[in-house]
Amino acid sequence: MERTLVLVKPDGVQRGLIGEVIGRLENRGLRLVAAKFIQVSQELAETHYAIHKGKPFYNGLIEYITSAPVMAMAWEGPNAVAAIRQTMGATRPTEAAPGSIRHDFALEVGRNLTHASDSVENGEIEVALWFSPAELVDWKRDSDRWIFEKG
After folding, report:
1. Is 128 exposed, middle or buried (0-12, 13-18, 19+ CB in 10 A)?
2. What is the mean pLDDT of the chain?
3. Which residue of 47, 84, 87, 136 has the smallest Cβ count within 10 Å?
4. What are residue 115's DSSP bridge partners?
5. Exposure of 82 by Cβ count < 10 A (0-12 exposed, 13-18 middle, 19+ buried)?
6. Residue ranges per domain, the chain?
7. Span 60-119, pLDDT tens digits
8. Model pTM?
9. Of 48, 52, 103, 115, which one is the catalytic site residue?
10. pLDDT at 136 over 80
11. In Å, how far are 23, 31, 38, 148 from 78, measured between CA atoms?
12. What architecture is domain 2-39+72-147?
């Protein structure tokens, strides 16, 4: 069972798309295990985007993610990373598959609405960065047996 991070970034929050993102992930069969609506601190932003430090777009990323609140969530399920990234669509909205969130609601890479971890390993790291262990809820849905082949 994979666990991964999803952020509805400032543009998605400002456009009222939190419910749309949650609904699509729930409809996909993924299970929400943590959520919080927060104003991202400079420190958290710099840690989250540390891999991009020194790149020309780094300062813009930091300014952007700290410009308005985000909805941070941890989701789990079999193949959660791939399923979520498919649901979000390609990073560049004009290259995203029809029916994906970015295809349906975004036009530019700098306003692509969401962040989703790009690997299982990064999902674990990012969930731990954004959520304390006490904030993660371990639970089972009655419908899990109809969605997941294995417990």
Report:
1. middle
2. 96
3. 47
4. 7
5. middle
6. 2-39+72-147
7. 999 999 999 999 999 999 999 999 999 999 999 999 999 999 999 999 999 999 999 999
8. 0.94
9. 115
10. yes
11. 18, 10, 27, 7
12. 2-Layer Sandwich (3.30)
Q: Rounded to whole angstroms, how far apart are CA atoms 105 and 112?
A: 8
Cross-strand pairs, 42:
none
Amino acid at 105: F
Q: Can you read off the two tokens belonging to residue 15? A: 């456009």
Output the CA–CA distances (angstroms, integers) from residue 100 to 46, 92, 94, in the order listed.
28, 12, 11
Residues 6+ apart with CB under 8 A from 35: 71, 72, 73, 74
Exposure of 136 in the CB half-sphere (CA atoms within 13 A): 16
Provide the pLDDT for residue 151: 61
Other beta carbons within 10 Å of 148 = 16
Pairs from 43-52 (Cβ < 8 Å, separation ≥ 24): 44/129, 44/130, 47/129, 48/126, 48/129, 48/130
Eight-class DSSP state of 27: H
Burial label for 125, CB within 10 Å (0-12, 13-18, 19+), is middle
Clarify whether 115 is annotated catalytic: yes
pLDDT band of 150, cuts 50, 70, 90: confident
The count of C-alpha atoms lying within 13 angstroms of the C-alpha of 98, restricted to the half-sphere facing its C-beta, is 0
